[in-house]
Design a protein that fits this description.
Elements: H1 13-21, E1 30-36, H2 42-53, H3 56-60, E2 61-66, E3 80-84, H4 90-102, E4 105-109, H5 111-115, H6 127-134, E5 157-159, H7 166-177, H8 189-195, H9 201-204, H10 225-228, H11 245-254, H12 259-267, H13 274-284
Parallel strand pairs: 1-2, 1-3, 3-4, 4-5
Length: 296
């Protein structure tokens, strides 16, 4: 995905708000709310860009709550809920369960909601150590280990990636609007690379950091955006189905990467998954984060 804006177009948040609120009276659209927990909000920014690129979005969804794009508070019921960000406070758990109780369809929106994302890197340390490094007075902080949202509630669909992909987003909302299940990709990013005739970065950049490509074990759906721009896959979409992590680790080690390099690559976005946690143990040994489970 190329997020470069057309030269003659700028992102006008005020204009976006008018567009969003103009659809409130429509009965044909899916009432939608977007919530944010622990994350950088990059997926929301991407979605604001999609509105300018994909007008069809606003023909299908009626946003009743979208804090970044609307001034109004949540006052209406909704059927579809997007939750961006991981759970990192007790309050998040309560809010998430309240969202789940109302939403007919709940979507994990982006890498942080789906896998914990970059904030979950802290889970490989004690919570006390993290808080003492960040806050002047940790006693005033109510923080817990970061979790994907499906650790606490049932999630209907996952929009993976950092940020989400516009094509996959459109596939999802079209499917929800038609009361159908969207296409779920279980194959690796390597398949998308081959379809684009990309040079294999894993083979091409042997022994350099950029060559640590997780494409062979990462779930597709991003249209190989990083590798198509000569950058290694960082695994932001989490593990593919039946990923062979031990072989990926052996491949990295055979190319001269250190155990620390391997650990950092596997824990950057989806280290809480059982599969990528296994890769991280190349550095940590038997030490694992506070939990790990098979990816959804």
């Amino acid at each position: 995905m190329n997020l470069k804006k057309p030269p003659a177009r700028t992102l006008d948040l005020k204009r976006t708000e008018v567009k969003l609120t103009a659809s409130v009276n429509s009965n044909d659209k899916v009432k939608t709310a977007l919530f944010k927990f622990t994350c950088c909000a990059g997926c929301q920014f991407a979605l604001l860009y999609f509105f300018h690129q994909l007008p069809e979005t606003l023909e299908l969804l009626d946003f009743v709550y979208f804090k970044m794009a609307m001034r109004k508070e949540l006052e209406e019921p909704y059927e579809l809920a997007f939750v961006e960000g991981g759970v990192s406070t007790p309050e998040h758990i309560e809010q998430l369960k309240a969202i789940r109780s109302q939403a007919k369809v709940l979507v994990a929106f982006g890498a942080c909601a789906a896998h914990g994302g970059i904030p979950s890197i802290k889970n490989w340390q004690t919570e006390r150590a993290v808080e003492e490094n960040v806050y002047p007075d940790p006693l005033l902080v109510s923080s817990i280990k970061v979790s994907p949202i499906d650790e606490f509630v049932k999630v209907d669909y996952h929009l993976r990636g950092c940020p989400i992909d516009e094509v996959e987003f459109m596939e999802l909302i079209r499917s929800v609007a038609a009361d159908k299940s969207p296409y779920i990709r279980g194959h690796p990013v390597c398949v998308e690379c081959k379809l684009r005739n990309n040079i294999c970065i894993l083979l091409m950049r042997e022994g350099v950091q950029e060559g640590m490509c997780l494409g062979p074990v990462t779930r597709a759906g991003c249209r190989a955006v990083c590798t198509s721009n000569m950058r290694a896959c960082f695994g932001c979409r989490g593990p593919m189905s039946n990923s062979n992590i031990p072989e990926m680790v052996r491949t990295f080690m055979g190319k001269g990467f250190s155990a620390k390099d391997i650990e950092m690559r596997f824990t950057e976005y989806a280290g809480l998954s059982a599969e990528f946690s296994e890769g991280a143990r190349a550095y940590y040994g038997r030490k694992t984060p506070y939990y790990h489970r098979k990816a959804a």
